[in-house]
Amino acid sequence: MLELKELYKTFNPGTINAKTALGGLSLTLRDGDFVTVIGGNGAGKSTMLNATAGTFFVDSGKVAIDGTDVTNLPEHKRAAFIGRVFQDPMMGTAPSMQIEENLALAARRGQKRGLAWGVTKAEKERYRKLLGDLGLGLESRLTTKVSTLSGGQRQALTLLMATLKRPKLLLLDEHTAALDPKTAAKVMELTDRIVREGQLTTLMITHNMRDAIQYGNRLIMLHEGRIILDITGEEKEQLTVPDLLEQFTKASGDEFANDRAILS
Amino acid sequence: MSFLSSLMNALPGAAAQGLAWGIMAIGVYITFRILDVADLTVDGSLATGGAVCVMLIRGGVNPWLALLCAMLAGMLAGLVTGLFHTRCGIPAILAGILTQLALYSINLRIMDSKANQALSVDKYPLLLSQRYVRELSLNNPLPLLLIFTAAVIAALYWFFGTEKGSSLRATGANPNMARAQGINTNSNIVLGLMLSNGLVALSGALLAQYQGSSDINMGRGAIVIGLAAVIIGEVIFGKVFANFGLKLFAVSIGAIIYYIVLQVVLQLGLNTNDLKLITALIVAVFLAIPYWKSKMFRHTAQAKKGGSKNA
């Protein structure tokens, strides 16, 4: 479903601030894979996701989604394949627009936008039902501006928007990190449900080691822009947090313990 | 008493000017409030609209067609700014300034190298003229200006409700989100700038017919007058008008109020030369108020936090 091949990306090349964020990263996802991504700060996790989504172009390498080479496609064109939820709850929605308008925008992801009315009646009914399923009481607030929602509500809404039109690939960039623990757990459960029900191919970055182990069928660990650990299936189910830390130290020769990852 | 009567005398003229400038201010609203871009092209494109309209009518073209051509010329100016910004990576403000400067030369060329071109209502079948503004007749420019304003608001209300229009609003509200939803934010910015400058040029064309001439300097400070109208409209009607159409209507009323206030201060004996200074100061204060408010709020919030810690 997703193929990343030998991706290289250096930010600020040729300057004193040059930073190699991706150092020949390769990754192949099969249809329906739910992969959790962990790694220290600056390991290249977000860079990998953004390179996939097309926020910037890579220096070299290839990105293919469902057999289509998208390496040279701009972000808004790749969006036809990709649903995204960001770490910052402010980033995934248009705050000055209504809930139903945000959903209607998302429902047309990858489609040509013409002069038909922006939100149809039939759509509103559908949104009311879908929002009801979230259990956040948003179904009665379709015309409320998103700016009045809490961070958790926004992330749940963004998640719904990202999957409203079934994406070939769902990218979650620490989408629960900015939420309080209780809300984070709720959004995480919701994520798991949506991914399972839609059998969505998913890449999820997380700083929460327990989440990384608990969710998904595959876990990868990044270090210095490369994948240093790739655990799937039964082996992943046996995994514990201390295991993971030990594996990391072994694979990278680095102390992971200083990172905030150990705290969660 | 004479003050009041002369003010009453000046009111229809102020209303007509306000309505014509209101269409320009609605154009500014599109870029400044919806797209979140400060577009300085308008100082040039307003004069372009006037110049194109006047020269075409002088050349024997139907005034309606002249209005349409003026609008298209304005859209072209918006296109140039848009391409400077999105294709050449020039910051939006600078892109607008560049186009505005270039338009000064272009406008002079359109106006046959004259800074001023007259368009007499006696010689040409103009749609509206200042001369009849206090007359109770079909020639009065006010009904036509009202119809234009209503048509512009209705058309924009429709457009920004469509899929394309919604994507334009999203582009201004959160470009990251817009791109993630597959919206080409660059082409939307260009489209918004074209739409805006088309309206600005239309306003310029109406103004030129109204005052019976086009002038190379007629657009000087237009952006500030546009902002003033937007801000006055928001200050007065911001709390009551939630509907998008009404918000545009508030901009138009803002422009009318601006011109009425202008008449009042002129009647009070203010020097005309100081008008631009006063307008600039008023707009600066109103733009600063939200910032000051947010700073004050932060201070009090911090004070509260500190207080609870000490308790």
Topology record:
The complex is a heterodimer of chains A (264) and B (311).
Chain A: E1 2-11, E2 19-29, E3 34-39, H1 45-53, E4 60-65, E5 68-69, H2 75-78, E6 82-85, H3 99-107, H4 121-134, H5 151-164, E7 169-173, H6 181-198, E8 202-205, H7 209-214, E9 218-223, E10 226-232, H8 233-237, H9 241-252
Parallel strand pairs in A: 3-8, 3-9, 6-7, 7-8
Antiparallel strand pairs in A: 1-2, 1-4, 4-5, 9-10
Helix pairs in contact in A: 3-5, 5-6
Chain B: H1 2-35, H2 42-58, H3 63-88, H4 92-110, E1 116-118, H5 141-159, H6 163-173, H7 175-180, H8 185-211, E2 213-215, H9 222-237, H10 244-267, H11 275-310
Antiparallel strand pairs in B: 1-2
Describe the structure.
Helix content of chain A is 34%, strand content 23%. With 264 residues, chain A is an alpha/beta fold. Chain A has a domain at 2-81 and 167-263: Rossmann fold (3-Layer(aba) Sandwich), CATH 3.40.50. In chain A, helix 5 runs parallel beside helix 6. The longest helix of chain A has 18 residues, at 181-198. The radius of gyration of chain A is 19 Å and the shape is globular. Chain B is globular, with a radius of gyration of 21 Å. Chain B is mostly helical. Chain B folds into two domains: 2-270, ABC transporter involved in vitamin B12 uptake, BtuC; 273-311. In chain B, 76% of the residues lie in helices and 2% in strands. Chain A binds chain B through residues 53, 74-77, 79-80, 82, 84, 86, 90-97, 101, 104-106, 108-111, 113-119, 161, and chain B through 159, 161-167, 169-170, 173-174, 176-185.
